[in-house]
């Protein structure tokens, strides 16, 4: 059983990391990062079998690809809090000579990153490739991905959806961050996805829908269900209903904090809502 | 002279790799027959991945397959290997530093009758602009086979360009391909012709014509456009003091462009360039198209005579 109290403390600390990192540069993407904090915490601190002594080839361990690379603040914070690299390095986010680039990259050798992302729509293809290699290597580990819902407007995603089911890539669990918002506004205003469950089922994926995408216990339960469904011939998708900006009240219920940083006053407000639990970087 | 297509050299090289390197995997976007990948597929069905007509997905999958130690070779037409998937190559392969071999057939105007939609003449430029991307354009069957085998031993992204038509197979069948190493094919003192791909044979034929007219032309095969063999180029130019470049590619961004950059910095030298001059191709027989667009032995001869007068 996961220690939910411990995980909740991590979530609060990671939220602090996110808003502090973005505030320090007056740039970055806090909204989606906060919305996926519980998911990435559940994945890295409970669900995934992974090794923080980073080896690119990841033989015998689960791997994760962040396709929507703009939520790098939450990814960096989770990796650091796991122990992939020192949490002090979070202070270098988006600064000159940093390994913590605006969007994740392997280029700077940051432990925990296996693929650059940022230009959207590519992560599912990358994950399929890693999953195919795991099968060739007789490695029964699982490949996880996370995608923005707006990201699914990229055509390559649907090439990959078609391939994964058509070729029985069943060691793959793709999660869609279904917050229904993107940088220009609501998903429905920009370009509706329609019935996403029906679309993914029509592409012959096994689809799980989790309405409580910011509830740790619910996320863990759904991820474990997805694991149980793996290895049965089909890839598994999780439609994770999340709240953009979750945990910082003034960032919730709007798309405006997708790519905007808080000012000094707003930072203090955000931090007051998420007291320090494990120590700031 | 035996006539063979360079794409068959790729197929033969891939088949050999399949037999000797268990980490080599091959991906194709519904052009297995055109790329001559059938033998690899038949011999290694578990290591062959038919992606369907989805080139962006193919490049992304190839990048992902490197995680765990595989060496992916992707195969499709040059146009769909580059311009269609430039961002996928840029982010998932080049910037991510993945060991992917992008193998591209039907490059250039000699693709022929399918016309300009398929005749990519910008691919060398696109690929050479990507940091750390190796760019190779082979001249015949034997060299393409040797290059295909050689790039599996190089760790890092490679763009390997070859073509559709049957052309003279004039290089050695037991050659060892060395990335970035210029090959001297003919000595000469009056002009140096640097050629790549299908234009290497044309350069040799042009040199014969020039010889018959009393002009001594040196011919160098620059199969690797990046990294460029700067030393070989500067050494040759120091002797002949004028240059013709020849390629089945746009003048913008191609081999000639790379050589002109080098010479303008290190040793400004008169240069004439044979290639496509800022226009699209059209349908037609390959060799007729080369003639019409001035990318053949006659154009090289004319350029050599012209550049010598500029010394």
| Uncertain residue segments of chain A | none
Uncertain spans of chain B? none
Q: Total domains of chain B, how many? A: 2
The shape of chain A is globular
Mean pLDDT of chain B: 98
Order of the strands making up the biggest sheet of chain B: 3-2-4-5-7-6-12
* Biggest pleated-sheet summary of chain A: 5 strands, parallel
The CATH fourth-level homologous superfamily of the largest domain in chain B: Thiamin diphosphate (ThDP)-binding fold, Pyr/PP domains
**Helix percentage range of chain A:** 25-40%
Helix and strand pattern of chain B: EHEHHEHEHHEHEHEEEEHEEHEHEHH
Tell me the name of the CATH homologous superfamily of chain A.
Thiamin diphosphate (ThDP)-binding fold, Pyr/PP domains
Describe, in plain words, how this protein is organized in 3D.
The complex is a heterodimer of chains A (281) and B (311). With 281 residues, chain A is of the alpha/beta class. Chain A has one domain: Rossmann fold. In chain A, 39% of the residues lie in helices and 11% in strands. Chain A contains ten helices and seven strands. In chain A, the strands form two sheets. In chain A, strands 1-2-3-7-6 form a five-stranded parallel β-sheet, sandwiched between helices. In chain A, strands 4-5 form a two-stranded antiparallel sheet. Chain A is globular, with a radius of gyration of 17 Å. Chain B has 311 residues and is an alpha/beta fold. Chain B has two domains: 3-168, 3-Layer(aba) Sandwich (Rossmann fold), CATH 3.40.50; 183-306, Rossmann fold. In chain B, 40% of the residues lie in helices and 21% in strands. Chain B has 13 helices and 14 strands. Chain B has helices spanning 6-20, 32-35, 38-43, 55-65, 78-81, 86-95, 123-128, 141-151, 199-212, 230-240, 255-266, 286-292, 297-309; strands at residues 3-5, 24-28, 48-50, 71-77, 101-105, 134-137, 158-161, 166-168, 183-186, 191-195, 217-221, 224-226, 243-250, 271-276. A seven-stranded mixed β-sheet of chain B has the order 3-2-4-5-7-6-12, sandwiched between helices. The radius of gyration of chain B is 19 Å and the shape is globular. The chains are: A alpha/beta (281), B alpha/beta (311). At the A-B interface, helix 5 and helix 6 of A face helix 4 and helix 6 of B.
